[in-house]
Amino acid sequence: MEGPFNPKPGSSVPRPSSPTRRTALGLILGAPLLGACSGGGQISNPFGPSAPDGPPGPQQQPLAVGTGQVKVGLILPLSAAGNAGVAAQSMKNAAEMALAEFQNPNIQLLIKDDGGSPQGAQQVTQEALGEGVEIVLGPLFAASVPATAQLTRARSIPVIAFSTDSSIAGRGVYLLSFLPESDVNRIVDYSASIGKRSFAALLPDNAYGNVVEAAFKQAVGRKGRIVAFEKYTADRAGAARTVAQSLGSADALFIADDGESVVATADSLTAAGANLRNIQLLGTGLWDNPRVYASATLQGGLYAAPDPSGFRAFSGRYRTKYGTDPVRTATLAYDAVALVAALSKQQGGQRFAPETLTNPSGFAGIDGLFRFRSDGTNERGLAVMKVASGGSTPVAGSPKSFGA
C-alpha cells in the first residue's frame, strides 16, 4: 500500500499532497522512503557463530551492477560455507532488487566476495577502493568489519556494515543490523507507558545476554526499578527459583533469548512455582518464533520487533523475482542500497557525509524507521507485538518519526 512512509517500489520521497503528508515528510528531512509496504521472517540470534563453519568454496568473481556515476562497494561472504553463503546470496539478490526497483539510480554497485574472512574482506576492500567507491556496504561478519575499516578510514570512506557487534561501530563505520539495544529500549519504554514500574529479568549468560543486560539496566534505570535479576547457563533451575521467589514484588518479567530457550526458561519458572499469568511477560525480537506462539505459558507476552508487514510484502516481491524465500537479513542489503541510491539522488556532494548519514530524523526502510547514531550504532522504530496462538498481533505500531 502506498503512503507517505510506504511509497511504490523504487520510488524516492513522494511529493506531499496534503498538509498531513507534508508534515510527516518534514519530520524526516531529506530522508528517502526506501521500500514499498513490505513480517514474517524470524530474526535469528545475532550472537551465534561470527564466522562460517568449514572452508569457503571458490571465490565468486566481482560483479558490477548498474551504470551510475557513484560507485558503491558491496562486500558479502558469497563463497562462505553453509548458512553464511546462503544468507550472503540472498542479501546480494535483495541488493540487486533494490537497484532494479529504484527509479534511475545514479549508482553502480560493485559486488565483492570476501569469503567470510578478515583477509578476504581486506583484499576486496582494497580492490573496491582502487575502483573508486565512495561508500562500502558490508561486510557481514564482525571480524571482517575492522579489516575493511582499517582501509576505508584512511581515505575517509564510510562503511555501512551488517554486523550486530556494537563494539566495532564508530569512526565512519555504521551498523544497519538489528541491534538488541533497540528491542530492549522499546519494550521497556512501552511497558512503562502502560504502568509497569517494577521489573524482574532472567537472561542467558552469554554474549547476547551481556549486551541485553547493559541495555536493560540502563532503560529500567530511566523508567522504574529492578526487583530481581538473574542469568542462567545450561541449567536454568537455580536462576529460575531465585527469580520466582521475587515475582510478587514485580509487575513485569523480561526474558530475552531465542524461541526454544524462552520456552524452556518459562517452563523452568513454572516448575519453580511462578504463576506467570499474574505478571506481564516481556521479550525481544527473538520471540518472533513458532515455538513461542505455541507455548501456553507465553500467551499475552509482549516483545519489540520490526512491524512484520514490511518483511511480508518484501518477501512476496522477492519470491516473485527469485522463486525462493529471502533470509531475514536480506532487508538490510535492500535498505542499504536503496539508501545510498536515494542519497546520491538527493544530497549531491554531501551524500555520504557524516552529517547526512546521521540525520537525526532518520530514514524509512522495509523494516520501518531507522537512524544512525554518531557512534555508528543505530536506533530503529519498532512495533510492540503480543504473543498469540496463531502468531502475533501488534499492540503498538512502529513510530512515524523519531523523538528528539
UniProtKB/TrEMBL annotation:
Protein's recorded name: Ethanolamine utilization protein EutM
A Gene Ontology BP annotation from the UniProt entry: amino acid transport
Origin species: Bradyrhizobium retamae
Bias (Low complexity): 8-22
Family: Belongs to the leucine-binding protein family.
Membrane found in the keyword field: no
Classification via CDD domains: PBP1_YraM_LppC_lipoprotein-like
Domain Leucine-binding protein: 69-391
Membrane-traversing stretches: none
Keyword Membrane: no
Domain of life of the native organism: Bacteria
UniProt keyword terms in alphabetical order: Amino-acid transport, Signal, Transport
InterPro entries, sorted: BCAA_transport, Leu-bd, Peripla_BP_I
Stretches for region Disordered: 1-22, 40-64
